[in-house]
Amino acid sequence: MNIYVVMKRTFDTEEKIEINNGVIDEEGAEFIINPYDEYAIEEAIVLRDEHGGEVTVVTVGDEEAEKELRTALAMGADQGVLIDVEDLDEEPDHFTIAELLAAYFKDKEYDLILGGNVAVDDGAGQVAPRLAEKLGINQVTTITDIKINGTSATIERDDEGDVETVEAQLPLVATAQQGLNEPRYPSLPGIMKAKKKPLETIDLDDLDLDEEDVAAKTRTVDRYLPPEKEAGRMIEGGPETQVDELVGLLKNEAKVL
Amino acid sequence: MNFALTKEQQMIKDMVKDFAQQEIAPKAEEVDRNERFPEETFQKMGELGLLGLPFPESYGGSGADTVSYALAVEEVGRACGSTGLSYAAAVSLGASPLYYFGDEKQKELYLKPLVTGEALGAFGLTEPNAGSDAGGTKTKAEKKDGRIVINGEKCWITNAAYAKCVIVTAVDGKDDRGRNNISAFIVPTDTPGFTITSPYEKMGVRGSNTCELVLEDVEIPEDHVLGEPSGGFKQFLYTLDGGRISIAALAVGIAQAACEKALAYAKERKQFGRSISEFQAIQFKLSDMSMEIELARNMVMKAAWLKDQGKPFTLEASYAKLYASEMATRVCNEALQVHGGYGYMREYGIERMLRDTKLMEIGEGTSEIQRMVIARQLGC
Ligand SMILES: Cc1cc2nc3c(=O)[nH]c(=O)nc-3n(C[C@H](O)[C@H](O)[C@H](O)COP(=O)(O)OP(=O)(O)OC[C@H]3O[C@@H](n4cnc5c(N)ncnc54)[C@H](O)[C@@H]3O)c2cc1C
User: Fold this and answer.
1) Which of A77, B36, B222, B363 fits as disulfide partner to A55, beta carbons 3.0 to 4.6 Å?
2) Whole-Å CA distances, A212 to A127, A131, A201
3) Given ligand 1 and candidates B366, B367, B368, B374, which is best to mutate, with the most ligand atoms within 8 Å of its CB?
4) CATH of the domain at A10
5) Is the domain of A100 the same as that of A167?
6) What residues in B contact A33, CB-CB < 8 Å?
7) Is residue B212 annotated as part of the catalytic site, yes or no?
8) Interface of A with B in 149-208 (CB under 8 A)
9) Which residues contact B109 (CB under 8 A, 6 or more apart)?
10) Ligand 1 binding site (Cβ under 6 Å of any ligand atom)
11) How many domains does chain A have?
12) From CA A112, how far away is CA A170, in angstroms rounded?
């Protein structure tokens, strides 16, 4: 099986994040593989070990993303591909990324393309579905289980808490939801071996694309952190006084009633 | 000059950090309270290749460098001092001498299981009457009918209850100046007459296994001498030099954990209507703590780097061990002070770090011994 994983390097949302003038301070942030993509990588490795074939992890980003690609290789992926967009003048959006990936996959043979359900940084969940649309193949999002039988897949997907079982034909794009698996730690021998695994860097020219072809459709106007949570207020007294005061506050202070 | 880690070093650090925070940190309180050695943790560490970190692939190791090893020990120590000590002892004291001085057969038989995590390494040097003064070793090894017979007693030997073999030092003759000659022997733990017990109640690193060894007419084959006969003393000095880097890294890890806790607590704790982190007295403590940790870490990295470059590192390893261990005790003590009465309570984990880190000033050469090593290097 030819299994691909589309992976994003993101900042770790569990670490401290600082924003200066609408831009995330990269110096202070910790970068990781998007956790949902980690499920995708794990699943790809498990499926490859079961069915044979190769796992290729593809990312769109800059040179820094090589570290996350190497981590994926250390986990057990066979090769990495960096689509380098460092030279783009404009900030890429989901359209840009999906177009680049679609161009990359145009002449590739693939049975399964896995990705994360969303990226924890912008939470859009757009790239993988857009890619499937562009490639004109099936897509199943938020999967929590996948079994491959020949040319079809039996998939369980998380449907807002319910489980939906889907049969779909390969080739297929599927996005990982929490619960799909428990991603492994890259082992030390894995880390050392990753050094020797192929990691290819390609740019727009290699994909026969001009900057206009992938120009972003959206523009990020501002970014800011949510306001700090303020201390709560206790309402005291008997049930009736409390209800009166609460309704009063909702009407006059919060102005939601 | 280049202070940047390589990609591999950074990845190893990230991986060990993730692993240690997920798998080791949540158990730190429990292993301390119950004096339990977390065997399952070491099994996982073996699977991830951590126990064979600095050894070549040909022995089943991961082939990483000393810098990576120091980073790994720091991260394990940051999660749990006990686990950090057993980890550092397994690699630096248990496995390293086999790798440095063992012949191919010994490596095949005794190093490989350590590297894969099948067993833990242990190194028995200290005796009830020979601590800092290893030259005062009383344990004796005598040749008898083509075998070696060992008699003696060792104390405070880390990991021995989980070892397949212990490297034991013993007097096996006199040198040309009439002084005791000390050699190292590989003693399988299932040899008759070899008794290993864990009778100690320790102040700290209570989740690390510490053993008493009694050897009564323990017979081993002649080819179980480790390295050059009569080179024993030099060998374990070299082993201890390497071990000191790891003890220093461990101290940095424990101090880092304490400092992080103190900073978070200081921001949260309000007195006199303000976070105590707004008081200059507390700020200055935190400034000193984080500065000293970084200084110690830099010294550890330099000593590790020198070792990787094949350059002399005895002096730097002693600097690192001495400064980092004393620094860590200071930092844990101040971190406890920042916590006030809460720091004195077990629940907050700070008192454990203080108890754990105190050992770093004692094990693998006390602070006094480090100062002696440094003075000797200076030419005194
Ligand atoms: C938890 C734990 C784990 C250990 N693990 C191991 C292990 O795995 N393997 C192993 O072999 N050993 C191990 N040890 C032993 C440890 O290495 C010794 O405790 C240490 O070397 C000090 O020896 P000592 O305790 O006999 O102290 P002593 O040598 O009796 O020293 C007592 C005091 O006198 C000072 N002193 C001694 N000589 C001098 C001098 N010449 N000048 C100035 N001051 C001096 C010392 O610095 C110290 O302050 C462990 C110890 C502990 C507590």
Assistant:
1) A77
2) 19, 18, 21
3) B366
4) 3.40.50.620
5) yes
6) none
7) no
8) 185-192, 194-195
9) none
10) B 89, 93, 123-126, 131-132, 156-158, 202, 205, 210, 359, 362-366, 368-369
11) 2
12) 7
Q: Which residues form the domain of A238?
A: 229-257
Q: Does some domain include residue A240?
A: yes
Window A:66-85, CB contacts with B under 8 Å: 66-67, 70-71, 74
Per residue in A69-84, pLDDT (tens digit) is 999 999 999 999 999 9
CB < 8 Å & 24+ apart, contacts of B189-196: B189/B160, B189/B163, B189/B164, B189/B165, B191/B218, B191/B219, B191/B220, B192/B218, B192/B219, B193/B217, B193/B218, B193/B219, B194/B218, B196/B160, B196/B161, B196/B166
Specify whether the CB–CB gap between B251 and B360 falls below 8 A: yes
Distance from the CA of B319 to the center of ligand 1, in angstroms? 18
| Structure-token pair, residue B82 | 């006990």
Six token digits for residue A187: 């082992």
| Nearest Cα to Cα of residue A69 among A45, A108, A38, A102 | A38
pLDDT tens-digit series, residues A105-139: 999 999 999 999 999 998 999 999 999 999 999 99
DSSP bridge pairs for B177: none
What pLDDT was estimated at residue A13? Answer: 86
- Tell me, yes or no, whether A96 and A188 share the same domain: yes
Say if the Cβ atoms of A74 and B11 lie within 8 Å: yes
Fold category of B123-230 in CATH: Butyryl-CoA Dehydrogenase, subunit A; domain 2 (2.40.110)
Fold of B233-378: Butyryl-CoA Dehydrogenase, subunit A; domain 3 (1.20.140)
**For chain B, domain boundaries:** 7-120, 123-230, 233-378
At the top level of CATH, the class of B7-120 is: mainly alpha
- Give the DSSP per-residue string, A219-254: ------PPPPPPPP----SSHHHHHHHHHHIIIIIS
**What pLDDT score does A231 carry?**
80
Question: Does residue B268 sit in helix, strand or coil?
Answer: helix
Residue entry with tokens 């990845």: B11
Neighbours of B323 (CB within 10 A): 20
Q: What is the DSSP string of B274-296?
A: EEGGGSHHHHHHHHHHHHHHHHH
Q: Which residue of A has its CA nearest to B55?
A: A189
Token digits of residue A59: 């990312």
Question: So what's the pLDDT on residue B366?
Answer: 98
Does residue A16 sit in helix, strand or coil? coil
